[in-house]
Every structure is written in C-alpha cells, then in structure tokens.
Amino acid sequence: MARGRTIAIVSGVTVLVVGAAGGGAYYLLRTRGTPAETAQRFAAAWQAGDTAAMSAQLAAPQPLTAYEQMRTGLAVESTRIQLGRATETDGRARVPYTATLRLKNVGEWTYQGALDLRVADRAWKVAWTPAALHPSLTPGAAFQLKTRWPERAKITDADGGRIDTGTVGGSVQQLVGYLDKATKKDVASLGASYKTGQSIGRAGLQATFQKQLAGTPATEIQVGGKTLHTIEGTAGKELRTSLDPGVQAAAIAAVKNVEKPTALVAIEPGTGEILAVVNSQGGFNRALDGRYAPGSTFKAVTAIGLLAEGVSPRETVTCPKYATVGGLKIRNSDKAEYGSLSFLDSFAHSCNTTFAPLAERHLGADKLLATAEKVGFNQPLAIGVPATKASFPRAQSGAELAAESFGQARITASPLSMASVAAAIADGTWRPPTLVPGRKQKVAEQPLPDGVKDDLHAMMAAVVTKGTAKAAGLPAGTRGKTGTAEYGTGEKLDSHAWFMGFKGDVAFAVVVEGGGGGGKVAAPIAATFLRHL
Q: How many CB atoms lie within 10 A of CB 264?
C-alpha cells in the first residue's frame, strides 16, 4: 500500500478518506434527504390523487390500490394531509399525520395515522403497509359507507301547500318531477352515500334540488365491517316555490276547454317570480320549452326600442296595405290598411307596414338586437327546472330586420319568455324569471330605457280598448298585445295565436298552437284567466 493513502471501513457507513502530500479531499457518502422531505412528497401526491408519484416514494414497489378503493368507496372529493414532526431511530423513521377527507354528500372525516420510513438505496423511502393509509386497515380489507337517510323534505307552493304528492294537476307535476330508483350512473354522480335502487329525484324540481330535499344521511365509515367513525346527518330542507294556487287555478280554468294545445304562464312583475304554469295537454311542456315565433307580441319589444329613440306615441305614421323593406313585401293581417294615424294607434291595430319601416329607419339590426336582449332574449334561464331561452338572431339583411320587427323571421320564444317581457313592461325592469324565490341567477335584472314604461302602458291599453283585442272581453285595466305568428311553408300559412300583457301585479302570456288570430283566440283565453283571479 502506497504511503500516505488510507482506506477505513466503518460498519453501517463507508467513508473514503483520501490524503496526499501537500493536502487532501474528503468525500462522505451518506443518506440523501430527510424523512420529513420524503413524507412531504408522499403526502402531496396523496392529496393530488397521484398514485404514480406516491409509488416513487416507496421503499419496495407495490400497487397502491387501497388509496383508489378509499376514494371510490367513500366518495372522497378532496384530501388534506397535515404532517407532524418526524422521529428517527436506527435507520428507521415515523412521521405522524392528520388526514381530513371531504366525502360527497356526507361531510368531513378527520383521523390520525403515521407513515413509517426506512433507508433504501441511500435515500429515505416510505415503508408502506395498509396501516399507512389508516391504522385499522389490514390487507384485503375495504372501506365502505353505511347510511341512514332522513325523511325527504317537501315541495310546496307559495302558500305552503304540498305540490309533490302526485295529486296536483299535470302541469304542476311536470314542474315538480318525480322520484325514481337510482341507477349505477346516478350513484357515480351523486356519491357513495347513495345506493343503487335508492329513491332519488328524477326531472323537475325533485332533480334540481335533490341534495337540498334529501338532506344528508347519518353515515358510518367502515373498514372490514368495523365502524371507524360516524358522521351525523342533516334533515332535508323544504323547497317553497313561487307558484300561487289561486293564479294557477285561474290559469287552469282558462285553458281547460281549449281544443288545441295551449299554454299560459303568469309572473309577478316586481320580482320575476312565476305564479302559474299551465299546459292544456300533457307531454311536451310548451309553456317553458315551446319555440314559437312570437308574432306581433314582439311589437312591444320593437316599440321599446323606437320609444327610446324618440318616436312618440302621438307621432303621425302611416299604415298602408303593403310596404316593401329590404326587398321584402309586407302586408298587415287580413290586408288591413289604416292610412295616416298615430304611432299609438298603429300599435293598437298591429300594423306590420308601420313597424318594419320604423325599425329600418330608427333601429337597424344592432339596436333591435340590444333591445331584445334587455328583456330576456338570448339570456340564460335558471328558473329551477330546465327551460328554453328565447332566441333572437341578429338580422343579416334588411328583409330579415323587417320581419323581426313584427316577430317573425328566426325569432323563437316560449310563453315563459313572453310573460317575462310583459312583466318587464309592467314594472319597468326585466328580471330573470324564477320558480324558486331567492335562487341565484345567471344574469342581472335590466331596467327599460328612461321614459318608455308609461308610453308603452298607454299603447298596450289602446290594444284592449280600441285595437286588436277590443272584442276579447278583457277586464278594465288590462294592458296587452295580440300576436298572430305564421309558421310553416307554402302560400297559405297556419298561425299560432298569442296574447301577452298584464293587469295589476300579474303579467302573463298565452299561446294556442295553430290557433289562428291572437285577438280572436288567445285574448279571450286571457280574459277568462283574468276574470278567474
């Protein structure tokens, strides 16, 4: 052995000491990192649900299926791991932890455990056993939940009367929905506290407010049949809707003898709360999901824009038999003509040949679109059950703008949407409609332009007193607008009959599919509705 060089071997640790004349360097081979650092990486991966990253910290490769079984068996939504102080003895270490798991539809569960670590390949690694996941977990054991559900809460009308008993009318049942047996797909969505075959809400309010109505179960967290912890349940919370039983009864009376499919929606103007929803024939919920051209009821929307642009109800306009705008030849219903008259009277007589030229002159595609969107068109609905929003595409030509001005072209709306328009005109502010008072909405309320409300009230009153709804028998004080919306193809088109309006604190819209003229068919239905209030 050369002079000046020494090799020393110490049990457990090998140290190479290299020396030479004139100086020396020392290299110390030792364990990399600390137990705390390894535990931190493992815990971070556990929180993230990253079993690959967890496996990288193990002293010996092995599957970590127990973590995935815990997540699915307990419906773990999130995991939070807080590590304690590491202790180290003779190449072994232990790091205590506190785990907090949020379980879907159940609550939080917090427990204590510990990670054991040892040195492998000169680095600290987790010496994993099932007890690392939970002190009571043994090989082959699985986590599960045992639940006891509270009684389901009730759904009521605005007066507190139950509407979820199955004895209410079909239109209300469409809104309420029904109870059904949970499928595997439902359980995957709702969480492991639910079981296949369990009663859950299906459709309507029962589905939308499933969690609120069902409450949360008293839940035992078990592993291998042993109860580790019990989370107390909470009772379901009653859901009170805005449906007014008196208004609903009046709506039913109005449509029950109509032969053709008919729908009526009533709204309280000051709140946007839906008071009544009625479909005369079952199946399709046309009151909320109908996609009809609104016809001349939309003239009320166009009038908002025109009034805001300075057109006065007293301004003299013309109502010829025909007018051509953007290359589209326009006529009035029954080819009527009224010559020179006030803007108010042209509205009362529903003159297409007045509105199309005025829309071209004062509004254009962009202003008419903006006006429509101020009263709910193209706005998402969050009433508590699925409902189709009113659609107003921006006009792509002068001809389309002309047709849109009196509610034709590609515009579609439901009775809900047009009742919402009527409510906006009644109150001066459009509010998102809702079946559930206080429900969070996706869009904000929007006021009408200054000075528009009173003028439009006068114009809608004229429709009833001397215009297209004069013969309908509407009660004094009613303000409204008729609509005859053509649909189909060919020379002779069929029409949906519309009437929308308000009286006092009730705004409404009614449509009769294929009913014909709004003044002759829909307005008398509205009159019956108002007389029954």
A: 32
Q: What are phi and psi of 257, to 5 degrees?
A: -105, 10
Domain boundary among the residues 119, 141, 163 is at 141
Together in a domain, 268 and 352: yes
Residue 13 lies in a domain: no
Q: Which amino acid is at 373?
A: E
pLDDT at 15 over 90: no
Q: Is 282 in the same domain as 394?
A: yes
Q: Which domain holds residue 312?
A: 245-532
pLDDT at residue number 6 = 32
Q: What is the mean pLDDT of the chain?
A: 92
CATH assignment of the domain containing 398:
3.40.710.10
Same domain, 90 and 186: no
Domain count, the chain: 3
Looking at residue 520, the DSSP 8-state letter turns out to be I
pLDDT number for residue 487 = 86
Calpha distance 315→307 (Å, rounded): 11
CA distances to 60, 159, 172, 374 from 244, rounded to whole Å, are 68, 7, 11, 27
> Are the C-beta atoms of 269 and 423 separated by less than 8 Å?
yes
Q: Are residues 304 and 181 in the same domain?
A: no
- Predicted local confidence at residue 335, as pLDDT: 87
Give 357-407 pLDDT, tens digit per residue.
999 999 999 999 999 999 999 999 999 999 999 999 999 999 999 999 999
pLDDT band at 1 (very low <50, low <70, confident <90, very high): very low
Residue 7 has a CB neighbour count (10 Å cut-off) of: 10
Cβ atoms within 10 Å, residue 437: 15
DSSP category for residue 390: P
Are 524 and 499 contacting, i.e. CB atoms less than 8 angstroms apart?
no
Please indicate, yes or no, if residue 12 is contained in any of the structural domains.
Answer: no
What tokens does 27 get? Answer: 């290299």
In a domain, 14, yes or no: no
Asked whether the beta carbons of 310 and 339 are under 8 A apart, the reply is no
User: Distance between CA 327 and CA 400 in Å, rounded?
Assistant: 10
Least confident window among 168-172, 205-209, 412-416, 421-425: 168-172
Give residue-wise pLDDT tens across range 275-299: 999 999 878 999 999 999 999 999 9
Report the phi/psi class of residue 182: left, alpha or beta, with left for phi > 0 and alpha for psi in -120 to 50. Answer: beta
Among 212, 237, 262, identify where a domain stops: 237
- Provide the 3-class DSSP secondary structure of residue 439: coil
What residues contact residue 102 under an 8 Å CB cut-off, 6+ apart?
76, 77, 78, 79, 108
CATH number for the domain spanning 171: value is: 3.90.1310.10
The answer to whether residues 500 and 445 touch, using CB atoms and an 8 Å cutoff, is no
For the chain, the C-alpha Rg in angstroms (whole number) is 36
